[in-house]
Amino acid sequence: MFSVTVTSLLIAVPILWALRAFYRLFLHPLAAIPGPRWAAITSMYGGWYDLRAGTDYTRKIIKLHEQYGPVVRTFPNQVHILDMKSYDEIFKTGSKFHRADNPIYANPVMEGSAFNIREPSAARMRRGIYLPFFSRQSIQQLEPLIQKQMLKFLDGLERKPAGSVVDLTMGFKCMTADVIMEYCFKKSLGFLDAEHFQHSLILALDNWFKELPKLWYFPNVQIFMFHAIGLLPEKTVEKIVPVMAGTMWVKKQCSDRVRELLEAEDVGTTLKSSNRSMFANAISIMPQTGATRITEEQLGSDAYLFFAAGTDTTSNTLAFGTWYLVNNEEARRKLKKELQDYIPNARSDHLRTWQELEKLPYLSAVIKESLRLGFGAVHRQPRVAPDSDYAVHGYTIPKGTPISHSTPAYHLCDTYFKDANSFVPERWLEASTDLEHNMVSFPRGPRSCIGQNLAYAELYLAFAYMFRRFDMKNAGTTAEDMMWTDCIVPVTKAHLKVKLTPVSE
Fold first, then answer.
1. What is the rounded CA–CA span in Å between residue 414 and residue 427?
2. Which of 129, 203, 379, 483 suits 412 as a labelling partner, its CA being 20 to 30 A distant?
3. Alpha carbon of 250 to those of 157, 196, 211, 253: distances in Å?
């Protein structure tokens, strides 16, 4: 009997798989949409790129568009689009498109955070708690907190011997991590104090992102591991899964800070103040926003979300921009000349403000080009039309079908940016409205990046004072080292290392 059952299974499984493949290729609602046959048959076509070292599906999709056109079937039940009109429709303010039910949004570490909310109106309500405190005006009011950590970073670099090799990938991560915690809670975690910026928790976060592609294709394993590991003693987790231990420790720090604010006697009665942290102000006005149902756990998850997003996206933009500048003598010379004229005293403890630095045209151009080639988040951003089919380029995409767009596809497309793979700050000096519109580093609509004003403040201060105070040379970093893979954010093969020499006044 057993042998008969096994034989039946051995016959039935291939037949069922073949029937499913036939359906997906010829009878599926997406059968008419062009794309690789294997992508139509199995999601592991994407896994072939995402799960191997040195490749990723997001970059492959760019090539698929070159081959198949603006609409490509990238998974059995998912379409990727490269068309700005479509992007505008799906990501516009008031869009009714929901986030798709996708493994990247089921990250257990983010459970309860705004990141995991699919429905637009619910997402808007949660964002409404924090949005006033990430406005341009609020960032300017709390800019001293940003400058405090920026000065600590710059002074730490200054103390290194001239010609020292510095791991700027880690340096930028430590700096942005301390900035976001300082801004959120007026209390950093001291990442900048780590020797050579090699802080174990930042390394753990970096390694955690590298593991994410595996979890997209095996989400149940991710959820099981997270809950199983949560039952183990902390010391055991540190030994067997240091990546998870570091991530959980940072989340605990965020949750503890939220708890301290909730337990403070004046929270809930004190009005918004420019002297208080972002989270203290946000919690104090929660009853006025109708957000009284937001739990302590959800607030802690949001705090961790701000930490993770605010650390890697900005630090990556700084790293990519610096990489291009140290390898582009002409651009570096123009930037340094502009900075020398505007900042006569490079080592003053009184830094120029973000608002003042925005007046510098070439610095602004460098930052925009760094954002374009640093991308922000690089992952495909699946959305679904919940109520009706979606028509695009002569194709009909059934309602409920995930429709993806990704930032690199637009930023590396010559249709939208001439000579798109080259670092050319000059393109922004007389940029047209269309060029500005084609930049999608900060997704638009109901899920636009809430922290973009904070990111701009950090980018202006860091680029201005890094290149005003130091001469930089490449310390052996190669183009291959800076090749990125999609881990939601771009993760490079190796770190950016430079030799720093303080400039004389």
1. 13
2. 203
3. 25, 20, 17, 5
How far is 455 from 459, CA to CA, in rounded Å? Answer: 6
- Edge-to-edge strands of the sheet including 403-404? 71-75, 78-81, 403-404, 383-384, 98-99
Please provide the DSSP assignment of 382-403 as one string: -EE-SSS-EEETTEEEPTT--E
Q: Which two tokens stand for residue 234?
A: 């902390």
413 is in an annotated binding site: no
Q: Where are the alpha helices (DSSP H) in 186-241?
A: 200-217, 219-229, 234-240
Nearest to 50 by CA among 182, 215, 292, 194: 215
Walk me through the domains of the chain, giving residue ranges and CATH numbers.
100-387+438-502 (1.10.630.10)
Instruction: Label residue 50 by pLDDT band (50, 70, 90).
Output: very high
Q: Answer whether 111's CB lies under 8 Å from 301's CB.
A: yes
Residue 182 carries which side chain, given as an amino acid letter?
E
Report field, pTM of the whole predicted structure over 0.90: yes
> Given pLDDT bands bounded at 50, 70 and 90, which one contains residue 271?
very low
